[in-house]
Amino acid sequence: MSDQDYERDHEHHEWLTDKEPQDARNESTESEHYRSDGERVNSLVPASEMLPERIYLLPIHNRPFFPAQVQPLVINRERWEETMRRVGNTPHHTIGVAFVGEHGLESLDHEGFPEIGTAVKVHKLKSEDQQIQFIAQGLQRFKIQRWLSKEPPYLVEVTYPKEPVNAEDEETRAYAMAIINGIKELLPINPLYGEELKHYLNRFSPHQPGPLTDFAAAITSAKGPELQDVLATLPVAERMHKVLPLLRKEIDVAQLQSEISEQVNAQMQERQREFFLREQLKVIQRELGISKDDRENDVDTFRNRLDSLVVPERVQARIDDELNKLSVLETGSPEYGTTRNYLDWLTSLPWGVTSQDQLDLPHARAVLDRDHDGLKDVKERIIEFLAEGTFKGDVGGSIVLLVGPPGVGKTSIGRSIAEALGREFYRFSVGGMRDEAEIKGHRRTYVGAMPGKLVQAFKEVEVENPVIMLDEIDKLGQSFQGDPASALLEVLDPEQNVDFLDHYLDVRMDLSKVLFVCTANTLDSIPGPLLDRMEQIRLSGYIAEEKLQIAKHHLWPKLLKRDNLPKKRINLSDAALKQVIDGYAREAGVRQLEKQLHRIVRKAAVKLLEEEVETVKVSVKNLEEFLGAPLFRKEKVLKGEGVVTGLAWTSMGGATLPIEAGKVHSLDRGFKLTGKLGDVMKESANIAYSYTLGHLAEYGADADFFDSAFVHLHVPEGATPKDGPSAGVTMTTALLSLAKHQAITRPLAMTGELTLTGQVLPVGGIREKVIAARRSDIFEVILPEANRRDYEELPDYLKEGMTVHFANRYRDVANVVFK
């Protein structure tokens, strides 16, 4: 019979789109009947018909369908509508369900279907939108014998194979009992299986091992291929052997899931119980007056903070207003949080709390000498400063500016001042600060507003008279957000900081008791109005003798202690230490010296571990093993016609500055400058050239020398920018030496500004320049007469062995140089 003949014989049956199939409306009864192979079957099939020999196929992807199952199926309407219409036109309404696994609809063909599937009866068929839903009632396994249609709708001829079983066999009964016990064990753990068990008990006898095994497989969560293997196994005993492990695995998973759920529920119940108990406790305490809510706690906390403070009246009035506002706000409102933070800052400041100053000069000297070697003049200035405070009663309201090159100890001196006074110390760097709100705070209207650094300092030190260090004040920046240097004027002006106003607090604070210590490398970049409010103390660079003492007393012991190395394990001789200072660390400060000493410690530690020696000795002979070749060689004072040594000051300290003048040719008159000179230094060079040109005869030189000479004036180290007027005297001497053909044969250095009329004007940085001369073993210098006072104020150890000539006019310089 063809597919068309098969449908034509049954075309009087209609397919119901939104209704139940016709025979689904008529009650089907369970009946006993026989297939063509003679086997008796118990299942819900039409009483008047046998299972069909030809059925349409429906592929499913998730898991196989078992004869013992009754469950809804949902399929795609567009693809399987025609198949379901033809099934609806059959009298038996039976379709074959086959598991095809992960095959996609596009790639699915008849070869992807397994041989064994399940014939199901279609009930309560409905179509909605793009889906068709129906209840599938599993009937019997089928085996495909021949394909009648290999394209959808798939139509095949099938047989219903026997399922060999001996229900009386002891092994079969044992397996059946094990499966029944497994199902019973699974039910209490996962109640979801209870409904399926009821369907099973209503349809099958527990003594039928085949349906029992299929039902047990159907309720597991095993993967599709495993279940298809069970479905395709016809002997019941072998099938039971495969199903029992799947059932045990399902029981184990369900037990684990149950344990996890119990643990989670126990934790949740415990937290809920704790939460309810706490809430009940709060209510009980509130009723008895024992406890208060969060808002009352905050108000009490802020009031308790004020008990030990002496708050000014205007500040107390503001605090009272804010506390009244806080007491009526809801705790969850944003304004409550803003007000609470504001009160937290206001009540955390040390209103009226000060520390007692230790105005004890011997104690202060001891602290300064302990922490610092050298710097005697600086220490004396600090002692004078403290002595003045002894008579005045306090040292507050002062602003000290420590100026000097990097690494000379400016920050550590500020800390020593605080320790000598017995005050709290707070340091913050203003280098690169571009926002004035860092100083004066943000207004409270902004999100994330904070007070300025000064208010934060008060909160941390908890006193009104700390020592506050403003580091790197010469490196303040400016931007569109404001000018922090201008904001500092109010902070550092003794006439204004009595009533300092922070934008966040919006109440007046008294900064007059604070001792401000500022540090800077140079004064050039500090605004004049700000510099005018500070008392300057200069820290010049160290000479070699001072560096030696600092290294022995401070740097070397600190490095050994930091690395936990016993002093006796590394022996650094004084001669080697001097060589480190002269050959590797000639800067004004001691940072580079500390780095070189740290290199020695690291190399010595490696030797102690690898060579297993008790002691590492560092001497002049083996110093290069630790530090390599020296960075600096002994500087030779340049000599010859037109060569003179000048003295210069930089932000890194003093330096010697050799200047060379040479005659290039005699073709015509000319003057050339090189050495990366600044505008001021170029002007000094032109003045020196003009002055020398006009006074050649006066100083015993050929008056016509420059008429036909092209002169080149060079300042070595051309990559280094150089500027300033203090080389005028030196340049004039170099040009005069060239014209007189007379070289300076002795170590001699000079500094001073020269005018066109031969006046020698004063210059700055005398201390640094004298230190630079001593460092280069130059002990004869020429200074302007106006700087005599600066030289006489130098400590004796710097003046020792020095020969100094003071000049009012250039004639005085020439007399010293050329005799």
TrEMBL record:
SMART domains referenced in this protein's UniProt entry, alphabetically: AAA, LON
Region (Disordered) location: 1-41
Residues reported to bind ATP: G404, P405, P406, G407, V408, G409, K410, T411
Catalytic activity: Hydrolysis of proteins in presence of ATP
Annotated ranges, domain Lon N-terminal: 55-251
HAMAP family: lon_bact (MF_01973)
Entry-linked PANTHER family: LON PROTEASE, LON PROTEASE HOMOLOG, MITOCHONDRIAL
UniProt name for this protein: Lon protease
Organism: Vreelandella lutescens
Gene designation per UniProt: lon
